[in-house]
Design brief:
With about 400 residues, the chain is α/β, with parallel strands linked by helices. It is about 30% helix and about 20% strand. Helix 5 crosses helix 9 and helix 11 runs antiparallel to helix 12.
Length: about 400
């Protein structure tokens, strides 16, 4: 991991700008039907040309054989040890939706889902239903009355939602607050029934009762709805406290992301979240209009991961090609350091996150290596960076931006 104390002692502020472009779920593996990964097949002349003049390699978000969630994967890219700084998905989703999660409150990430007549999950994402339908259902759930708690529902994109549980004034939990030591009820796979939420420690038993009451009432409220007739929760979490990027790295960082979870994570590490549109073209335009206001930009591209999770090989190829077509708008800004990375691999052959190393490239005037002939898993594996922990990307970026002084005499 990045040694924050060491870096803080060496880092200095400069006018150079760093751009971290994260293609969510970037990595893949050869698909059984084609024998090639999505990056192998996609026509990406701009990414390929960039790779030929960049440091290239592969990154490991957590470690060999460890499949990361999006939260740990992004934390690693920002230089944080994701094992040491374990953050529940709920707090990220809630903050990204600009929900208040004060002392004593906990948040959970939710999925609207489709259940069969026996209560088995047959679609965890309810067909990636429309955001408008989500908003209607979330309004319905927001009217539920839970003994001992105040409930806030935040409608996210498509099937996603966040739920914040706050102790009701005068309730037994009002003094100590709710405890986030709970198991998930989302099995994160289809063909299974939602699990029971269970307290991991005795102190969380009253919180367990509140969450179970909410889930039961939510199930009744959604009964007969289509395509979503159920809800599952995971990632129960209270507000954590992390070292902030402006303090640790002496940066003025900004985040450009359309999905709430990634905006929430950016807020937690001290980035200013910029308002942007839904497309990568919108994000690049936001970058251009804010170019003189910040010296570090994190841009997030979700389409690669969504296609990977759906097992849609052709759509992931298309997502890569769309990003590539839009890329000149970023390249025209000529950042001092440009990092193209992924938070994890999501091979369409597996239709899920995986443990495979992720393609990586870092371009700056001080990293002129061009070992790769293009941007793919196979080509990046030949690069001078080798396979490195994702936590080491930030120190390399700072160094190639000439923001680190010499260590020692």
């Amino acid at each position: 991991m990045a040694d924050f104390d060491l870096i803080h002692s060496l880092v200095r502020q400069t006018d150079s700008r760093i751009v971290l472009l994260v293609l969510d779920g970037l990595g893949g593996i050869p698909h059984p039907e084609t024998g090639r990964s999505e990056l192998d097949v996609a026509k990406t002349p701009n990414l390929d040309r960039l790779a030929r003049s960049s440091l290239t390699g592969l990154s490991l978000p957590v470690g060999h054989g460890i499949t990361p969630g999006s939260g740990p994967g992004h934390l690693a890219l920002f230089g944080y040890n994701p094992v040491e700084h374990l953050i529940g998905r709920g707090i990220l989703e809630a903050l990204g939706l600009e929900m208040e999660v004060g002392p004593g409150a906990i948040a959970a990430r939710g999925n609207y889902c489709t259940l069969d007549d026996s209560g088995v999950i047959i679609d965890r994402r309810a067909g990636r239903m429309s955001t408008r339908t989500n908003q209607e259902l979330s309004t319905r759930l927001g009217s539920l009355a839970i003994d001992g708690a105040e409930i806030a529902i935040g409608a996210g994109r498509e099937h996603r939602l966040a739920v914040v549980f706050r102790p009701a004034p005068g309730s037994p939990s009002a003094t100590v607050g709710f405890i986030d030591a709970l198991t998930d009820n989302d099995p994160q796979r289809e063909g299974e029934m939602p699990q029971e939420v269970t307290a991991v420690v005795p102190e969380a038993e009253s919180t367990e009762r509140v969450v179970r009451d909410f889930l039961w009432q939510a199930g009744e409220a959604l009964r007969g709805s289509h395509p979503a007739n159920g809800v599952v929760l995971r990632g129960f979490s209270a507000m954590p406290h992390l070292p902030l990027m402006p303090d640790t790295f002496r940066l003025n960082p900004a985040a450009i992301a359309s999905y709430p979870m990634y905006r929430g994570l950016a807020k937690l590490v001290g980035m200013k979240v910029l308002q942007t549109g839904d497309t990568i073209e919108d994000e690049f335009e936001t970058l251009r209009s804010s170019w003189n206001d910040h010296d570090f930009f994190f841009l997030h591209y979700k389409a690669t991961d969504s296609a990977g999770e759906d097992g849609d090989y052709h759509r992931k190829v298309q997502a890569l090609e769309r990003l590539d077509r839009a890329l000149p708008a970023l390249l025209d800004l000529d950042p001092d350091v440009l990092i193209v990375a992924g938070d994890h691999s999501t091979p369409t052959a597996m239709a899920a996150h995986s443990w495979h190393p992720v393609p990586l490239m870092i371009r700056s005037r001080w990293s002129p290596y061009g070992d790769a002939e293009g941007f793919s898993e196979r080509e990046c594996a030949r690069g001078i960076l080798g396979t490195i922990p994702a936590t080491e990307i930030m120190p390399v970026a700072l160094a190639t931006a000439m923001k680190l002084d010499k260590f020692g005499a």
